[in-house]
Amino acid sequence: MSIIVETKDLTRRYGNNIALDHLNLQIPQGAVYGFIGPNGAGKTTTMRILTTLLLPSAGEAWVAGHAVVKDRLAVRRSVGFMPDFFGVYDAMKAWEYLDFFAAAYEIAPARRPKLIDDLLALVDLSHKRDADVMGLSRGMKQRLSLARTMLHDPALLILDEPASGLDPRARVELRELLKELRSMGKTIMISSHILTELAEMCTHIGIIERGKLLASGDVETIMRSLQPHRTYTVHLLSDPAAAVETVRGLPHVLEVRALPDATPPQIEIDVEGDDQMVSELLTRLIQAGTQVTHFAGQVSNLEEIFMRVTEGSAYGGTN
Ligand SMILES: Nc1ncnc2c1ncn2[C@@H]1O[C@H](COP(=O)(O)OP(=O)(O)OP(=O)(O)O)[C@@H](O)[C@H]1O
């Protein structure tokens, strides 16, 4: 997978305040990259640098192979940016809003009507084509804003807190839309300080706090590397007490317990180690005559991981 966004020791100061501190970030092409961090962590600063709206104090960044400081126009052609506010002139209709920005992108007038109709259809706003933008709901404004980021068909979309302030239905609609954009081949970088907003839609995550990247990578690897042990749930047809005895004391098994009154009978095993260990554990169970119908690792959610990682930093732990 090629890398579409890369930063190297990216640093930004505001006076004495360091907003970004040697940030080294990589986003693979085609990813939905969730950029997660508490208020003031440096998310917007990073996004504004990547979209050429802000200069770094030190370090470098590239978008689609173009350097953000030296090759600003090429970067702008590759990126669509949706800021965390919806700025627009009053009394503009939805189609006029898109037409205005299409003109700014120097899209030929003859091409615009079809492009605008296609984008309004994509974001499910065809029926609001002639509505005043100021009268649209927040969710609709977000979708219109997203359509605007797509006008020049950029490879990368950078969306700053797009889900904030949306009601649950609008959030689901946004998530569906992002899925569709991804299937069109777009790479999407999306920020939030609310993890559950991102959990279901991201392939990769980066966790940022006080201008430092604490963790970054594909969701599964991050979850695995940040979990000191994993818990496996085993459903059985046979006696759970016998299964507990089989497993107890094996290397890499930290703890095992039968779940009383569970239907079907179940045990839980806390395992330390890699997939090889887990596979050997299952083999031992089967060899001992245990009748297993289900064997699965429990996945802790992004929220838990985020709390663990950021707590480590706040208390001076290593990351
Ligand atoms: N124009 C500015 N002048 C001075 N300090 C700034 C400016 N913009 C941002 N900062 C500071 O830089 C740090 C990072 O801010 P940034 O807006 O990038 O964080 P964020 O993660 O996007 O936060 P939020 O979730 O609140 O939007 C904060 O300490 C903020 O106060």
From TrEMBL:
CDD domains: ABC_DR_subfamily_A. Keywords: ATP-binding, Nucleotide-binding, Transport. PROSITE patterns: ABC_TRANSPORTER_2 (PS50893). The keyword Nucleotide-binding applies. Residues 5-235 form the ABC transporter domain. Pfam families: ABC_tran, DrrA1-3_C. Coiled coil: none annotated. The keyword Nucleotide-binding applies. GO terms for molecular function: ATP binding; ATP hydrolysis activity. InterPro entries: AAA+_ATPase, ABC_transporter-like_ATP-bd, DrrA1/2-like_C, P-loop_NTPase. Belongs to the ABC transporter superfamily. This is ABC transporter related protein.
